[in-house]
Design a protein that fits this description.
The chain is of the alpha/beta class. It is built from ten helices and eight strands. It has two domains: about 210 residues, Spore Coat Polysaccharide Biosynthesis Protein SpsA, Chain A; about 70 residues. An eight-stranded mixed sheet has the order 7-5-6-4-1-2-3-8, sandwiched between helices. The protein binds uridine-5'-diphosphate and magnesium ion (MG). The site of uridine-5'-diphosphate (UDP) has 16 residues, from β1 and α3. The site of uridine-5'-diphosphate has 16 residues, from β1 and α3.
């Protein structure tokens, strides 16, 4: 007979060999003290270091409460979480980073809110411990997101969050690709709330997000949840055409009534280059959406699980 599991803790792991021992040492006592049946699901997202070895050892040490999903390659943090979401057994699901930037000791705070009846609890980082660049880039993208999508959250980047099982089910059924899990959860939630959580410096190692990956992730956030970029672009393009039309009228007038002239040829080049670059941005933007559509239509499996370490329930 399967025992009902109350809580599933989901942790994506990518090259975290230096952090895992400390994570195990801090996480499990917190969960044991909750007095609820729980499971921890780690997804090894194609780590090139000893992370999998450490996860295996932890599974051997605590087989009843530890499950490990082993990807064959690196599919990204959000896919790693998605794979765990597809397999969770708990009524409540908590996500958290493996690098101890989200202190496990804060989990009970989230559960309190769930117990109070909320179906999605987002953490926002108090006194965020990241570089000035990351923090200010975050502020900018927050601003853009608030204006282009319906998603309202203080801190989209914080992964310390709790979800009721129904929300996780909806996320899984959405079959989303290149997605942003907190934003997806927010859009399915009927009763979301937020709590402030501590944020620590990365225990060891450096962030797995390069500048390029951050740009991609945030682009996914906007294009995955809104058509506003396309619509804004169309409006801007209309303004440009109106301006160009006016320019043609002025030039025609001058040609007819003042005769041929060549002054201002560089101005014209300037205008032309500007319009060409606007066109290129437009093509790129359309490409983003076509690419997303292509990925969905192609319906290829989003990740591949090489091995599952778990006891059968
Ligand atoms: N992560 C992952 N796959 C990736 C990149 C990151 O599973 O391709 C995991 C990583 O191990 C960590 C979490 O996602 O548990 C957050 O990553 P990181 O700390 O590098 O991001 P940051 O805190 O800088 O946003
Ligand atoms: Mg981190």
């Amino acid at each position: 007979m399967a025992v009902t599991i109350i809580l599933s803790v989901v942790i994506p792991v990518y090259n975290e060999e230096l952090n895992l021992p400390m994570l195990f040492a801090r996480l499990y006592p917190v969960l044991d003290a909750l007095g609820r049946r729980y499971e921890v699901i780690f997804t090894n997202d194609g780590s090139a270091d000893r992370s999998l070895v450490l996860l295996r050892a932890q599974h051997a040490a605590r087989p009843d409460v530890t499950r490990v999903i082993d990807f064959n390659a690196n599919y990204g943090q959000h896919m790693a979480i998605m794979a765990a979401f597809e397999r969770v057994r708990g009524d409540v699901v908590v996500t958290l980073d493996a690098d101890l930037q989200n202190p496990p000791e804060e989990i009970p705070k989230l559960l309190e809110k769930i117990d109070a009846g909320h179906d999605f609890v987002g953490g926002y980082r108090i006194d965020r411990q990241d570089s000035v660049f990351r923090t200010s880039a975050s502020k900018l993208i927050n601003y853009v997101r608030e204006r282009t999508t319906h998603i309202q959250m203080t801190d989209q980047g914080c992964m310390l969050r709790a979800y009721r099982r129904e929300i996780v089910g909806a996320i899984v059924r959405s079959g989303a690709i290149n997605t942003f899990i907190p934003a997806l959860a927010y859009s399915f939630s009927g009763n979301p709330t937020e709590v402030g959580v501590k944020h620590e410096e990365r225990h060891a190692g450096v962030s797995n997000y390069s500048f390029y990956r951050l740009v991609r992730l945030n682009f996914d956030l906007i294009t995955g949840f809104s058509l506003a970029p396309l619509q804004i672009f169309t409006m801007f393009a209309m303004l440009c055409s109106a301006g160009s039309f006016l320019l043609v009228l002025i030039l025609a007038y001058r040609r007819i009534f003042l005769g041929a002239e060549v002054e201002g040829v560089f101005t014209l080049f300037g205008i032309l280059f500007f319009l060409i670059s606007v066109t290129m941005v437009g093509i790129g933007l359309i490409g983003e959406y076509v690419g997303r559509t292509y990925q969905v239509v192609r319906a290829r499996q989003r990740y591949h699980v090489r091995e599952m370490l778990e006891l059968t329930p």
